[in-house]
Design brief:
The protein contains 16 helices and 24 strands. It is of the alpha/beta class and 512 residues long.
Length: 512
């Protein structure tokens, strides 16, 4: 059987794709599999696994062999600390040696890794910690506040003492997980107006990820790949970290506050040929005016998380000589639509979501659940287990079968690629003593695509109340999640049932 990696044209992929060929890429099988082994240990002799560009300008590189040894030591260390297989291990660390050792080491041991965003405030963090109930938290910050906040959880700082403890452990560790054991909990910000929930991935999920890796990212051996998205979230975790490593492909990441200069430096220094990022990253690179200072040779570019505006797309094509390829899906169902970057015989249509991944059945449905003809707007849906599953986006197809998105079907807010829950923001707003009522909706933003706007009925409308509310929110939720726009109103529009009428608020913000 020829390897699925040998299929180089769109027609060959449609004819030759099979799940059997995807499984053949791995050491594990449907009974026994370990995600850390597939991503790290089996590539021990392949040199550098991960390069990290830090916001302060320095770079670090970790090879497969070193990570294999350190993750084995971490697995033994977890056992010595009384962590049981199946326990959750939260990793609240920026991309770095500690992040990758903690995450892959937990999975190698048979614990469940739970990467979390380092900028969560105490309330945003508590929502997730109280949900997954980890037995251990690995952090890069002062552990005492977390120990106070979560007294029943071991909190360990990744400092010199931590690395000394690991050095005393054995490096060899044989993973014994089954393919159906949970490996990873990935938190979202909710799919509609729900609080954050964990999407639970088994070790075998790495096989499913290969669909996006091969046809959404266009990953192939020889690529020099870079994804600056945080691995605490879906894109940076699944598509920036696990996907390339599972194929034995060196990947690069970014750590710290975004800096366009550092991104350009990474592209040049690491000689990147394949890059995946949120459209906001490309907008910020464009706005920096720095492109001409760097020698960069990209041949594949993909993006996900939000649509790319036409001006940014035109700049990407001019600046790098590559048409960016959209990749579309959800955390719950995975990637279902791609633009097949690097594949001969496929034409990327700028502005489209692309076409379904091999084996997927997609359609646009009306309110009754019936399929619509081309150019008719309805609900973008995927067929799973003989049923249609709506993806909460509205769109249409053209006569050639390309899909297009027109907007969200619910009130999830996608800002700079981050998915935010309006309910979570509202619940935190209501804890401020000056806030009587609050409603949050998405509003357009030229840089971030969307930002959260809060309409607030205030108990106290003093001059500095808006600034005070925003400071309050920055301290309690992640820094990207606070409402960047706040408007004080006398009352919120309500439905006859007494609920906040968010449709009316959306119409209100469209008025000049």
């Amino acid at each position: 059987m020829n390897s699925i990696l040998d299929l180089t044209t769109y027609d060959e992929v449609l004819r030759g794709f099979s799940w059997e060929k995807l499984w053949a890429l791995f050491d594990g099988n449907e009974a026994r599999m370990n995600l850390a082994h597939e991503c790290i240990d089996r590539h021990r002799g392949k040199g550098t696994a991960i390069s990290v560009k830090f916001a302060d300008g320095r770079s670090e590189h970790y090879d497969f062999a070193t990570l294999a040894d350190l993750t084995g030591r971490f697995a033994h260390w977890l056992e010595r600390r009384g962590i049981a297989k199946g326990d959750r291990v939260a990793v609240i660390v920026e991309p770095s040696r500690a992040f990758y050792v903690g995450m892959f080491g937990a999975m190698k041991y048979g614990a469940i890794a739970v990467p979390m965003f380092t900028l969560f405030g105490p309330e945003g963090l508590a929502l997730r910690i109280n949900d997954c109930k980890p037995k251990l938290i690995l952090t890069q910050s002062d552990p005492e506040p977390m120990r106070t906040q979560f007294p029943d959880t071991q909190v360990v700082r990744a400092d010199d003492a931590f690395w000394a403890e690991l050095a005393a452990e054995k490096s060899a560790y044989v993973a014994t997980t089954s393919a159906s054991d949970y490996a990873l909990f990935q938190y979202t910000s909710g799919t509609t107006r729900e609080l954050p929930e964990a999407v639970k991935h088994t070790h075998r999920a790495v096989v499913t990820l290969m669909v996006a890796a091969l046809y959404g990212l266009g990953l192939r051996h020889g690529d020099r790949y870079f994804c600056p998205s945080s691995p605490a979230w879906g894109h940076g975790l699944s598509h920036g970290t696990i996907s390339p490593l599972a194929l034995g492909i060196r990947t690069a990441s970014y750590s710290g506050k975004f800096d366009a200069q550092r991104i350009f430096e990474a592209l040049q220094e690491f000689e990147i040929s394949n890059v995946a990022a949120a459209p906001t990253v490309f907008r910020m690179l464009r706005n920096s005016g720095l492109r001409e200072k760097y020698e960069i040779g990209l041949n594949k570019i993909s993006y996900a998380g939000e649509p790319m505006d036409s001006e940014t797309m035109a700049w990407v094509e001019q600046a790098f000589g590559v048409t960016p390829a959209s990749m579309y899906g959800t955390t719950e169902v995975g990637v279902v639509m791609v633009n097949y970057p690097g594949l001969d015989g496929y034409r990327i249509k700028p502005g489209s979501l692309g076409k379904p991944v091999p084996g997927a059945q997609m359609a646009i449905l009306d309110a009754a659940g019936d399929e619509l003809a081309p150019l008719q707007t309805g609900e973008i849906s995927v067929r799973k287990k003989s049923k249609w599953f709506p993806l909460k986006d509205r769109g249409y197809t053209d006569e050639e079968g390309y899909f297009y998105i027109e907007g969200r079907s619910d009130d999830v807010i996608i800002s700079a690629g981050w998915t935010m829950s309006a309910l979570e923001i509202e619940n935190t707003l209501l804890k401020h003593p000056a806030v009587l009522e609050a409603a949050v909706v998405a509003v357009p933003d030229p840089l971030r695509g969307q930002v959260a706007k809060a309409y607030i009925v205030a108990r106290d409308a003093r001059a500095d109340v808006v600034e005070d509310i925003q400071s309050f929110m920055k301290e309690r939720l992640s820094k990207h999640e606070y409402p960047r726009q706040v408007e004080l109103v006398g009352e919120l529009p309500k439905t006859p049932a007494g609920k906040v009428n968010r449709k009316a608020l959306r119409e209100l913000r469209r008025k000049p």
